[in-house]
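Morning. Coffee machine broken again, so started the prediction first thing and wrote up yesterday's gels while waiting. Chain of 182 residues, entered below exactly as on the submission form.
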Amino acid sequence: MGLPVEGETIQIHSYKHNGRIHRVWQETMILKGTKNIVIGANEKTLVTESDGRTWLTREPSICYFHAEHWFNIICMLREDGVYYYCNMSSPFVYDNHALKYIDYDLDVKVFPDMSYTLLDEDEYEQHRKEMAYPEVIDKILKRNLAKLISWIQQRRGPFAQDFIEVWTNRYELYRDIQAEQE
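Came back before lunch.
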């Protein structure tokens, strides 16, 4: 399986429970890669949807993935503050220069003031039935949703005050090094 190497660029592949590809981010620069945590950054990267549509991300983002938690967190750096988009998902695997996970529909949007909104509950229920999510998956996701909300409330992990500054600085350093090499 291997690990992503700091400074390298990889793809991110999101799948659905039935094994079908959901979304692919073309280029994410690795800022930290261990067996448990991958932190990456991207800016204006091409995203391809399962139906072939493409779009570019609008702002720089710091992405946080964990091998033991059933969620990932995208920190979007906007002019009016940091917005977080949290996907309830399987833990990541790293395979063939791509970070891969299963997207389980439920999302949490967190605003710069740390207020948050749960999104896509109806989509989760629909897909849970259509794709026959096992009861154990439902329980794991609900337990991890509670853990994610406690992280938001306690300002842990990517929600900690210095997280964005530390990883944005690292991203700028790698980006500068990459520009010098081109």
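The chain has one domain: 9-157. Going to sketch it on the whiteboard this afternoon.
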